[in-house]
Fold these 3 entries.
Entry 1:
Amino acid sequence: MEQLVNQITALKEEITAWNGGDAETFRIKYLGTKGLVKTIMGEMKNVAAENKKEAGQLLNEFKLFTEAKFEDLKAAAHDSPPATHDAIDLTLPGDNLPLGSRHPISLVKNRIISIFQRLGFAVAEGPEIEDDFHNFSALNLPENHPARDMQDTFYISQNPDWLLRTHTSSVQVREMQKGKLPIRIICPGRVYRNETISARAHCFFHQVEGLYIAENVSFADLKQTLYFFVQEMFGATVKVRFRPSYFPFTEPSAEMDISCLICGGSGCNVCKHTGWVEILGCGMVHPNVLDNCGIDSNKYTGFAFGMGIERITMLKYQIKDLRLFSENDLRFLKQFTSAV
């Protein structure tokens, strides 16, 4: 019994002078499953029978004493100010969060849509996986037509009649088939062609195509529409020219160039020292296309145009490598934060 009393007295002195760490360290040492309180409680079996009552009271009082010390340590830790390196000054401004931005392709696409919406064009969209009819046949490109070789196509191996669309003209076909005239739409979206990836070409890119069908639509309407677009997108000082071309779905057809924005028309590598850069193809909708879509070509006429968004973006921001758009390099993309 005397030995037990001496042990408890020594432990009380140790606990009273405790400076061995935080409250959790104290709990583990004294009140844990292998702590000293549980260990000394085990001494009860060595106490003589006539002293067990007194020993029990003594041990219980020691346990309560230890638990009280633990509670005091917890309260002190809660009330004490945090250490200097963990201090939080609530008067300081918050941390700066990195500012995101839209992708340059999205910026230019939205700008193009905004310009044509001011002219009354609505936005139309369609599937990226198309059938042969909507992508080729309806556009005056029947099977074995040589113009199909102009577009290297990704076909779906399980069903050769299905493919990844090569242009958003398929959306125009779907809108014409609805038979709701007049039609004035633009069709933005991603398209796919089996091309070797380089600074000027990629296996996928983005297009915006336009279509206007009504009575008495002329080539003059097409030219004035595109003049307005170029001035709104690139400024009033940019020069424009039209060159005769061939597209199976328009007749007559033309390609539209603008004066090079990088060299100002004096000639550089981008414009191949011509001073001009092609930005889109256009023309009057071929009568066969109207007939294929159930529209009376004797009553209605229309014009169509199509442009690559990447080409417009490269000219607007003077970007010389097409691959930058899909590499997700933040050093490149963060340059457009202020352009939102």
Entry 2:
Amino acid sequence: MVTDAYAVRTGIGPRPLAGGRVPRPVIEVIERDDGLINGAPADHYLAEPAEWQPHDHRALRLCRGHVLDIGCGAGRVAIELQRRGVAVTGLDTSPGAVAVARRRGLRDTVVTTVDEYARATARYDTFLLLGNNLGLIEGADRAPVLLAALASLANPGARIVAQGTDPYGTTDPVHLGYHERNRSRGRLGGQLRLRLRYRLLATDWFDYLVCSPAELEPLLAGTRWRLKSIDDKDHPYYLAVMELTG
């Protein structure tokens, strides 16, 4: 999907065509476990800084030291940090997305999971979870595992800068019903169960957490991370900064 989006944006490489002639929009299909289907243009994975949301720009100002961009995708954020002279590594589980990031100029990349990479000797001062990637916390069961992996990769005083979305401002009955369904099953209201589809491809089902700042702080209990600040100037989107203790 990212490869096709790159080809459509740049004209480099084979492009999906409608009727064999007209470039076809590259749409990421998001399927939720209650049957809801949404779609979004995949081009946003390639957005240049002029196309970003304001909170993305503020997030970059919070970076310090050596940065690990988790879920870097096509390198949207990591490439801009590199342009600014910041030492940055892009991590993603998708070989295709990382190949596009490298084609776009990102020098330092890793294709693996955070859990696997936690065994590496590399150490970082900032962990970036942008593009709503606070969702990679998944839920109460997964949070301590992911946060322990990041702590093992962290230099003293490291921070996590994560972008999340407060899901509870909606009046849409489809989403309100999903929140209630989740709570009745002992899950957080915005704890999504998703899979992504593109043409003939589909991911496995996975959890992805959309939570309020108030729900985030208890997820840090018992870990080495403490919530330092919340920037919700772009509500319902927010930036959460968590700092390593001990």
Entry 3:
Amino acid sequence: MPLPQAAVPGNPSADSVALALHVLEDMKAEDITVIDLVGKTSLADAMIIASGRVNRHVASIADSLVEAIKGSGLPSPKVEGVPACDWVLIDTGDLIIHVFRPEVRQFYNLEKMWGADRPHERLVG
């Protein structure tokens, strides 16, 4: 899988992406996808989408990600979706991480929305 611009060494987001990928792999997250957002949106430089097998697995992955991010000296991320753990969103500022249960991930299909090049917005004068 080619690395997005955000994950290229020398880019401030590279450490965040590498850290998140390491934690996701250690926690046995499934179907990990990295999407380069540089030039697509100002929300973040990269997005990572991953799946956990069940709610408890999603919660454990999310907890491990948050602990690792805080432990690395990065600012505390914003976290949404923890009570239900069908879909947990972790926002570090330069990286957005989505951890889904498989059926919820399939329903929202974020890869389709963000993965393809989106047409440039045209300004109407």
